[in-house]
Amino acid sequence: MKRLLVLLSLFLFFKLQSQQIIPLNEKAYIDSLQTITKGHLPDASKATASLLLSNYYRNSDSILSKKYLANGKLLAQSHPFISAKYYYYEGQYNLDRNKKKAAVSYQQAIRSLSKFKNEESDFLQALAWYSYGVSQKDKEGYIPLVKMILEKSIPLVEKYESNRNLGFLYTQLAVILTYNAQFKKAEDYNVKALKILEKHYPNSAELFFTYLNSANNFCYQANGDEAEKYLNKAEKLINPYPESSSNAFYYYSKTLLYITRQKNEEALPVIEKGIFYTQKYNQNLLAQMFYFNKYDILKKLKRYKEAKATLEDVLTEKSLTIDLNNRKTFYKQLSLLNEELGNTKEALLWEQKYSKLNDSLNTENVKLEINKLESKFNTAEKERKIATLNAEKNQKDLEVNKKNSYLWGMGLVLLLALSLLIFLFIIFRKNKKINEQKLNDIKQKEELSLTKAILDGEERERERIARDLHDGLGGMLAGVKINFSTWSSSHLNPEKDKEFYKILGQLDSSVSELRHVARNLMPESLLNFGLETAIQDLCEFYSRKNLDIDFQAIDIEKTLPLNIQLNIYRIVQELLANAVKHAEANNILLQCSQSGENFLITIEDNGKGFDKNRENTTKSMGLRNLKNRVNYLKGKMEINSDHQGTAINIELNIHGE
């Protein structure tokens, strides 16, 4: 459990600092940027302020962040250097939403910024290389990331020896080394950062986080005295700013210190202070980390009922349980807690959830082990049968030797006759199985052909209706609206003829609704730009104020046949429609990836879930259509749903039609 807390806390700090650090005087910083965007200042100043605001809000308010990002791009059009900077902030916005898109933006930023020879350009290139490494970490691991910082990022800013940005990169490298348990090396880089920051930037946010990183590094080495020294220094820096969101990270490091010193009772009020700040500034993931530490401490204090209630709250909030490995750990802990409390039935239920999720995460390993065991069993069974037959044969030989030649001859004839009967029976059974297999193959081919004909016919009819609506009726209604608008501008008064203009507005809405229907029938973005763009548009269509859809596309080829793309699009459309309509979720994760001939679709939501075994669910039109399309592509679908949410995994064969 202690190791788990270490990994989670480090991961949190690692995510935090994969960006430019916000000043400790946070309110003054944001107010000044917003004043610039609203004032009568040059577009270059407004563009830079908008990009910095986009970076500030990227984790707490994605809609506002995207708005500032778009505004910054628009204002930077006539400023080449700011336009180059834009690609870095575009990568920042996408880093936790779509790592593939983020990686493309970072590489574009590096190419564009390399044309400018100044300190800010060098630092942004260094950050872009670092953040690019973060975007590739899940695929390539930490060694390439460390190499990228040492060979790309740090050399770009080392020539500015007393620059705060060099100190920032040193402490970032220290965080990664701490995460990989290289505590001494991490300490060396923290010391390098402190030499720069303490001397030249004594009140900076970079120095504050370096103190926290140093304290955490010593906590993980169980050296509470050294950790406390750095934590006290961090406290002096944050004290003047009680309204700063960085207070939450200070209290988290203080919690780690108390845990290191096993002062569990004293850690609890510190955790409550940290929770206060996380709730105030909408830092959901960090809040759940506090709650998880609180649970762990309560469990150590044998306050099992409180520990259980705290862990159940973590599950309910769902920030940490989006990761299935975290959720599996929480299920196991709840099972153990209920066992301690004597709730045997509830403990069994949580253990079953744990086992089910654990089985789901390890399906391939389980299959491999089963195949190995089955192979060993079959081999042993064959050897046993051979040994049995040999024993029977030897016994018969002894009996035959005792009998006269007549009986031996008769026995041989009977044995031959029996062997012939067995041989004929085996041939009969084999032919019967072959015929049954042929019939099944023919039946499956006919079913696939029928499904293909139905789906192809359905898509052709959708395309025809969409074309007729858009080009025919849509064009006619648009023409009528234009004629009415032209005529009214010269014959009517907007103040006196409000009813007419109201009807004209209704006509305009009808044209928009007609085009929306036509687009649903046959998505133009799929035909014009391909599958990835079409799915992205679909996610944006379903997104709303209280619903965030995170779409991640990985290695989707643009050369997929159109009918395959269309079937995949319909599958995703049905999945999203079901999640939005029935789940009552506020977070949906959609991931589409391609690997050779396999296309994988995963969708997870934090909604109310459903009982997939109910009669009315299994017979629903939506699921039936979904299964038909999956079967058409020779795919398989797995559904996991409970009150914590729903996860659906689909694997398709893109050459399976």
UniProtKB/TrEMBL annotation:
GO terms for cellular component: membrane. Its EC number is 2.7.13.3. It catalyses: ATP + protein L-histidine = ADP + protein N-phospho-L-histidine. It comes from the Bacteria. The keyword Kinase applies. The chain crosses the membrane at residues 406-428. Residues 464-656 form the Histidine kinase domain. SUPFAM superfamilies: ATPase domain of HSP90 chaperone/DNA topoisomerase II/histidine kinase, TPR-like. Residues 363-390 form a coiled coil. Keywords: ATP-binding, Coiled coil, Kinase, Membrane, Nucleotide-binding, Phosphoprotein, Signal, Transferase, Transmembrane, Transmembrane helix, Two-component regulatory system. It is an enzyme of class 2 (transferase). GO terms for molecular function: ATP binding; phosphorelay sensor kinase activity; protein dimerization activity. Pfam families: HATPase_c (PF02518), HisKA_3 (PF07730). CDD domains: HATPase_UhpB-NarQ-NarX-like. Residues 1-18 form the signal peptide. This is histidine kinase. It comes from Chryseobacterium culicis. The lineage of its organism: Bacteria, Pseudomonadati, Bacteroidota, Flavobacteriia, Flavobacteriales.
